Amino acid sequence: MSEVKWLNNKYIPTVAEYIQTSTITSAYPMLITASYIGMKDMATEDIFKWFMDDIVSNEFEQKREHIVSYLECYMRECDISKEEAIQELQKGITDAWKDINEECLKPTKVPMLFLMRIVNLARFIDVMYKDEDCYTHAEGKMKKCIQALLVDPVPINNMRKDMKPSIYA
């Protein structure tokens, strides 16, 4: 409802307000939680207690009636140009990936299997929004990715005749 109010009132939230609301409305926490379904006994209560699209989708979203993006909130709050804001946000993305990689190298109470689901969601979002909004405009790069994965996949069960079977296959 916050986003609807922002839209109707032409309100530009602070960066903190935007992050607080978009963290929920992005559905990422729900997607990550749902990814744990089927993990049976591994998904303990303790795990659950522990528990890159604005730049490229901004112009398209602003052509239709849509709430302001993080990019616009950041530009307004920092009083900088769109180009400067994009550079700063891209630095933030790079720093976030460094943080993710560093944290994945440290021992943690949370099993890596759970962490990798979060990392894989971040990877997916990175592919979806890295250079263009592949979610909204799926006919371009995303169509090629889906085709490569589902229509023309790399065969993994065809072994060369000179190779011995692996115990890990």
Write the layout of secondary structure elements.
Layout: H1 2-8, H2 15-25, H3 28-35, H4 45-50, H5 53-63, H6 70-78, H7 82-105, H8 112-129, H9 141-151
Give an overview in words:
The longest helix has 24 residues, at 82-105. The protein has one domain (2-133): Farnesyl Diphosphate Synthase (Orthogonal Bundle), CATH 1.10.600. It contains 9 helices and no strands. The chain has 169 residues and is mostly helical.
Low-confidence stretches: none
Q: What is the CATH superfamily label? A: Farnesyl Diphosphate Synthase
The assigned CATH architecture is Orthogonal Bundle
Number of domains: 1
Number of contiguous helices = 9
Distance between the termini: 50 Å
Radius of gyration: 20 Å
Strand content: under 5%
Judged by helices, strands and strand pairing, the structural class is mainly alpha
Strand tally: 0
- Spell out the helices and strands N to C: HHHHHHHHH
CATH topology: Farnesyl Diphosphate Synthase
Helicity, as a percent range: 55-70%
* Shape call: globular
Major beta sheet, specifics? none
CATH uppermost class? Mainly Alpha
Provide mean pLDDT, rounded.
Answer: 80
